[in-house]
Design brief:
The complex is a heterodimer of chains A (334) and B (255). Chain A is mostly helical. Chain A has a single domain, classed as Orthogonal Bundle (ABC transporter involved in vitamin B12 uptake, BtuC). Chain A is globular and about 60 Å long. Chain B has a single domain, classed as P-loop containing nucleotide triphosphate hydrolases (Rossmann fold). Helices cover 37% and strands 25% of the residues of chain B. Chain B contains 10 helices and 10 strands. Chain B has a 6-stranded mixed β-sheet, with helices on both faces. Chain B has a 4-stranded antiparallel β-sheet with strand order 2-1-4-5, covered by helices on one side. In chain B, helix 6 links the parallel strand 7 and strand 8. Classes of the chains: A mainly alpha (334), B alpha/beta (255).
Chain lengths: 334, 255
């Protein structure tokens, strides 16, 4: 688990603030201009990376900051994608301004229900209950063929209409929608994790009974964090559904939940950018591995995971933030 | 004015009766010491008063309001704060982060999601005040795990004071401190809690007699006696409990 940043440093001069923003701005600029140099396939990988980065950051709020090990996070991703797709395919609602908020809202409602029940227990029981809910929804998606399309998946989802005359989606313009969503989600989650509420979540992760005797209603904090995590997973789910045009039951269950959990752990739980890096790392690795040694991907992923857990405690995120702090200090001194 | 009223309070762990029908009241401004041998039920009483453990029977009133079944966080907001016998801190976080958590816990509302903690100058000023009064401000960026045991002990007290409580419960504030350090620590505590109603328990009799104006003696979950320091010092039963443990039980009634 990453340590919280230094709080209480008095307001920094603008040079220091600019320096601390530098990595975010430079990565943002790279993501902004990179598509111009990419052909269709690499661009689709990059789009997928950003979608999963949102998904992984949303799980990080629950796992990394609040310390709740949830193995059912894909439920919110999947429900948002399915709700979005069902509205479009079964009801013919194709306006962006309707289907996107409704899809995200569906994820939030499901998170409110699942969280209300599963937060009655903690630790490994919480993990099992969230896992069970994910599997339950995934089985429901298999059985409820008339609505969800069953094991064949829900097909025919298109990219929603923005209502702009003469505008049609291209891979290029859709990438920028995802990029915009990523920037907004990162900004909001960054604000949340650095707020009083976010610090309280870290306190709950570190020592929940103590937080109660300090005056915190820890249950309410965990519940709100769980719903917020669900809403952001919903953003990723909606983008995913419209990008690939299909949702399958596996998107709700353990397969998806565990791969996003891997992204969080390898990237560094408790640092917001870490899970985003974890998402990029795993998806790019997957792309090369399935080129070179198709069918061996799960094996490679397993080995990578073992290596990361043994030698990269705390994930990439904690190493990078330590490295960056040292750079900042040395720049600041000179 | 009465701050705390405890009526017939009992706590059982299975068949073990740790607290047996305790009844007492605490007036505002009192410094009440609870003493008694190990296993007397002092820490359990604190845990029941602050809501960490549910009472088996009886009731607790705080400023006239019944709080017997309130969760710990609600009791804190009413003005009842506590420290722990064994340091109970956020060891991986820095000292200032610890202090800010304690300060913002006492405030309403907690669900401020978009304002950076670093912009909360009100909280920072309070944290600086408290930490400076304990000579800890210089160490504010150190992780609490790296602080000395005595400094951690001070932080434990600072946590309890952060909410400016009406009633403060200190469970063995000097526990684990070597003699000389404990004496200095007692002075610090006396300055900090001057205006607060206080209940504390301690084995260190120097601390008890220097800090308390009333003493309650707890023995196997029962209140043996309660009174001023002089009364307690002269009490035969108390002397027996502390000096002659073997004979005490048969003589309890006769003294």
């Amino acid at each position: 688990m990453g340590k919280a940043n230094l709080a209480g440093s008095n307001r920094q001069p603008w040079q220091a603030r600019l320096l601390s923003l530098a990595p975010y701005i430079s990565i943002g600029l790279v993501l902004l201009v990179l598509p111009s140099f990419l052909s269709t396939y690499p661009l689709s990988i990059l789009t997928k990376v950003l979608i999963y980065a949102i998904f992984a950051m949303s799980l990080d709020l629950i796992v990394g900051y609040t310390g709740l090990l949830s193995l059912g996070h894909a439920a919110f991703f999947g429900v948002a994608g399915y709700a979005f797709g069902i509205l479009m395919v079964r009801y013919g609602i194709e306006s962006f301004w309707l289907v996107v908020p409704l899809g995200i809202l569906a994820a939030g409602i499901v998170a409110a229900i699942i969280g209300y029940i599963s937060l009655r227990v903690s630790g490994v029981y919480f993990l099992l209950v969230t896992l069970a809910f994910g599997q339950l929804l995934s089985v429901a998606a298999v059985k409820w063929t008339s609505v969800t399309g069953g094991t064949n998946g829900l097909v025919g989802i298109i990219k929603p209409h923005l209502g702009l005359p003469g505008f049609t989606w291209t891979n290029f313009s859709f990438y920028y929608l995802v990029f915009l969503a990523f920037v907004i989600c990162f900004f909001l989650l960054h604000r949340i994790t650095n707020s009083s509420f976010g610090r309280a979540l870290v306190g709950i992760r570190e020592n929940e009974p103590r937080m109660q005797s300090l005056g915190y209603n820890t249950w309410a904090h965990k519940y709100v964090a769980f719903i917020i995590g669900g809403l952001f997973a919903g953003v990723a789910g909606v983008l995913f559904a419209s990008f690939y045009g299909i949702m399958v039951p596996g998107h709700l269950g353990i397969t998806t939940s565990s791969s996003v959990m891997l992204m969080v752990i390898i990237g560094g739980a408790g640092t917001l950018f870490g899970p985003a890096i974890g998402a990029a790392f795993i998806l790019v690795l997957e792309r090369f591995a399935s080129d070179l040694v198709p069918e061996r991907w799960p094996l490679i992923l397993g080995v990578v995971f073992v290596i990361c857990v043994l030698f990269l405690r705390g994930g990439f995120g904690s190493y990078l933030s330590r490295f960056w702090r040292r750079v900042r200090l040395s720049v600041w001194k000179s | 004015m009465e701050v705390l009223r405890v009526k017939g309070l009992s706590k059982n762990f299975g068949g073990l009766q740790v607290l047996q029908e305790l009844s007492f009241t605490v007036e505002a401004g009192t410094k009440l010491a609870i003493i008694g041998p190990n296993g007397a039920g002092k820490t359990t009483l604190f845990n029941v008063l602050s809501g960490q453990l549910p009472a088996t029977a009886g009731s607790v009133y705080f400023s006239g309001q019944e709080i017997t079944r309130l969760p710990p966080h609600r009791r804190l907001h009413l003005g009842l704060a506590r420290s722990f016998q064994i340091n109970n801190l956020f060891l991986n976080l820095t000292l200032i982060d610890n202090m800010l958590l304690a300060l913002q816990g006492a405030q309403h509302p907690h669900f401020q999601m978009f304002r950076s903690v670093n912009a909360r100058t009100d909280l920072l000023a309070m944290a600086q005040n408290l930490l400076e009064s304990m000579d800890l401000w210089e160490k504010r960026f150190d992780p609490v795990a790296t602080l000395s045991y005595g400094d951690q002990r001070l932080l434990e007290i600072a946590f309890a004071l952060a909410s400016k409580p009406k009633l403060l419960l200190l469970d063995e504030p000097t526990a684990g401190l070597p003699g000389a350090e404990a004496t200095a620590f007692a002075d610090t505590i006396r300055n900090l809690v001057e205006d607060t109603t206080l209940i504390f328990c301690a084995h260190d009799m120097d601390l008890v007699f220097s800090l308390a104006d009333r003493i309650m003696v707890l023995y196997f979950g029962q209140i043996i006696t309660e009174g001023t320091c002089d009364e307690i010092q002269c009490d035969v039963r108390v002397q027996e409990i502390y000096l002659g443990s073997g004979r005490s039980s048969e003589n309890v009634g006769s003294g």
